[in-house]
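Class I SAM-dependent methyltransferase
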Amino acid sequence: MGRLPSGDVSLAELSDYYSDALNRHGATPRGVDWNGEDSQKLRFAQLCRLFDLPGAFSVNDLGCGYGALLDYLTPQYPDIRYRGYDIAAGMIESARASHAAAIGASFVLASEPDRIADYSVTSGIFNIRLACPDDAWRDYILRTLAALDRCSTRGFAFNCLTIYSDREKMRPDLYYADPCFLFDYCKRHYSRNVALLHDYGLYDFTLLVRKAL
């Protein structure tokens, strides 16, 4: 795992952070640093607004954790072709163990997708920046968006904590992104068809980038 360019945090340190959370809380939302299952599912629902194909389609899930998104998707899309990626080996081991019987699903230890899919999504990977400076972390986000774009034929979706969070509740180890900047960036670099979702009651936002075919 490499070092974030110009930053003070390596992907190995982030892997250790999430591995520790998994060890303390198990394969639960708290094990991937979410407050609870309800908010996790609410975020998944926003990401899934990207999907506009009936029947079978393929999804890359970057930062898949223990595979919670696959559990959320399977009842709605039983023919989905899913591949999850994570930088924490413990997460991948947990995901593989609990989804051994899942047809059309696989989990890979990696920091970027290794295949082209119809869609790519990521939830929560831009939140924990530890001691990484703001400018270096933003560069990391933008490079990751470029990877999501390269690996998606129909579009990609992601979420971030928002700069519109309550100041007294903001933590120095978290990154709070500017939704207007990222909306404009995605419009200028990836697609004219971009949706900004910032109305679902959490201290984050979701961006949906749909590609013209």
